Amino acid sequence: MKKLFFLLLLTLLYSVTHAQNRKISLEDAVLYYKKGLLAKNLNRFNWANHASSYTTMDDENKIMTFHDPFSKTSNTLSAFQVKSGLESFPYLNWINGNEFYFTQEEDVFLYDVKAKSLKKILSYPASLAQNTDYNSKGKRMAFTIENNLFIADEKNNKIAVTQNTDKNIVSGQAIARYEFGISKGTFWSPSGKYLAYYQKDESNVADYPLVNINTTPATLNNIKYPMIGQGSEIPSAWVYSTLSGKSVRLQTKLDDHYITNLGWDNKEKCVYIAEVNRDQNHMRLNKYNAKTGKFVAMLFEEKNDKWVEPEHAPFFTPFQKKKMFWLSERDGYMNIYQYNIRTKKATQLTNNHWVIKKIIGYSPALNSLVYTGTGANPMNTLAFMYNLNTGKQTQITRQEGVHEVSLAGKNNEYLVTKFSSPKTSRSIGVYNLLTGKYQSLFEAPNPLKDVVVGKTEIITLKSYDGSDLYARVIKPSNFDPSKKYPVLVYVYGGPHAQMVVNRWNYGAPYWMQWMAEQGYIIFTIDGHGSGNRGFKFESEIFRNLGEHEMQDQLIGVDWLKRQSYVDANRLAVHGWSYGGFMTTSLMLRKPGVFSTGVAGGPVIDWKWYEVMYGERYMDTEATNPEGFEATSLLNYVKNLKGNLLTIHGMVDDVVVPQHNYSFLKKCVEEGVQTDFFPYPMHKHNVRGEDRVHLMRKVLDYIIEHNK
């Protein structure tokens, strides 16, 4: 018996030891969300609007539980109780503490928890509809079918807001290729009586050919792609009235410009639009009459020699009727300004030397604006509030890391936060803004607790202008400082992006941990042009993309070469999109620094990139010929030393395949040998199961050629 017990104990000890020393596979690293490496969460966590409770679901989404975190009480509701035959809950949207709505097949239902009553609100052609936008007060659903906009209402009407037969006219969808903070194309007024929407005329935009190989024979798919310096879309904004059944066009003055940051006032009388000229150095915030479309007034304007990029709609509160709040980086950092519509006076409320990211909302309980920002450490995302009575700014979230927050409670007196930090994979909690107390709701276990991973460190280096550069260094789990290790530098380097952040794993994807276990140091540095550092730091790249970014990458390389454990002859570089541009730039414009490079979806010549993003940072070939000449990588092909693999999705509609094809053509003309791998029928990135193939291709190439 003792022998049997001893053998059992050994087996258990071996199992525990074996589990705790599990090596991560590349497939596990890439498909982590399927392989048990995704941080656990509260299933369907949802805080009911204007309530003091939240809901979760069981694993099968059959039972919904209502939790009161303050009284520690709970009760449940089954899907069958809501609707006979409903086996599991669809995704729910709370209207208030008692009512939620959901879509089942082609019907939208409203359920009243207190009255235990279910009502079908409306029906719409869900199988055809896209860009759905439901207004709970008006009980109306806006949606698009192909290029036209429709509304379904509770009277079972299907209203055609637009009936354009010209495929160049697109209504109700995002415009400007999702730049300027644009993510959708419809905007309900608060009551749901009016619907503002974007429209674009793409008649002047050239067709770009992409090939669908899934048909026999292959077929042509022409997309609209406005390239730098060429014809662009003509945008307009409209307002549809459900009362009159008619639309009016807002009488914006220019055609060749951008309209963005559309917002309604509280009384639904006016619509506000930020209008930006095509050069993107002059913005006017204009006010329009919602019923007539007539121009009312220009509230203010902003100019900059480089660019002006409004990304946030004006913000109104129900208790500050004549005041509007606006986010602007006119002083060098994104700060909050208050504009008095009656006196036309603008006042800067915050004077932070760090970036405010977003206004989350308004808490009448404290008469305060609530917003997120970096605070002093740009790797963080924290929550703050500004008291409109006292003018005092207060930091709400206390833990350094990345907080995703929302307001809750009858008077928005609670702040719900989903938190991640380098040591915390996921944490959910709620702050009582009146008392400052925090209540933890959920703490996820470490998803890597049984996996062997290396050590990740953050270092700070100085750039050429004295700015701080934040870098991430990942070492193997069996790191030996007496050995020499090859290095993989992972780079993005472009605007709006930040690779090194204070979230789980310092923002590093798990494939980096796999690569480190193959005996590599993985290094990433955020240089000039990257996000959340203020306008001066970000705009250093203006009209000469790649130059300053390369300088910062080489500062990282110099640091690496000074480390005794780095093999300076075995440095590799990899990046995608802007990172592909940076990878190719470093291989061609700084030859010999890296022995191997893998560039995914690279921009090769900015003249082939899209108008909205490209002209902001580069202007045009006509106005900036020196910049385009200096940044075109076709001019440096003959400089290649080492091994370079370029990869492209063959139906890439962001960085079109012309970039890579032209690069390969130039390589042939110059007699330069390089490697290329296409991913048929993939767009700008390779996702899903095929991503395992991609990462195997990338990392195997580096391991093989960086010997």
Secondary structure layout:
Layout: H1 2-20, E1 22-23, H2 26-30, E2 46-47, E3 54-57, E4 63-68, E5 73-78, H3 79-82, E6 93-94, E7 99-104, E8 107-112, E9 117-123, E10 130-135, E11 140-145, E12 148-153, E13 158-160, E14 169-171, E15 186-188, E16 194-201, E17 207-212, E18 219-224, E19 234-241, E20 247-249, E21 257-264, E22 270-277, E23 282-289, E24 295-303, E25 323-328, E26 335-340, E27 345-348, E28 356-363, E29 368-373, E30 382-387, E31 393-395, E32 402-408, E33 414-421, E34 424-432, E35 438-443, E36 451-452, E37 456-462, E38 468-474, E39 485-490, H4 510-517, E40 521-526, H5 535-539, H6 547-561, E41 566-576, H7 578-589, E42 596-600, H8 611-618, H9 625-631, E43 643-649, H10 658-670, E44 675-679, H11 690-705
First CA to last CA: what distance? 55 Å
- The 3D shape can be described as globular
CATH superfamily of the largest domain: Alpha/Beta hydrolase fold, catalytic domain
Mean pLDDT: 94
Question: What are the segments in which pLDDT stays under 50 over at least 5 consecutive residues?
Answer: 1-19
What's the count of strands?
44
**CATH topology term of the largest domain:** Rossmann fold
Strands in their spatial order, largest beta sheet: 37-38-40-39-41-42-43-44
Q: SS-based structural class? A: alpha+beta
CATH class of the largest domain: Alpha Beta
- Summed up, the domain count is 4
* Largest sheet report: 8 strands, mixed
Number of helices, where a helix is a run of at least 4 consecutive DSSP H or I residues:
11
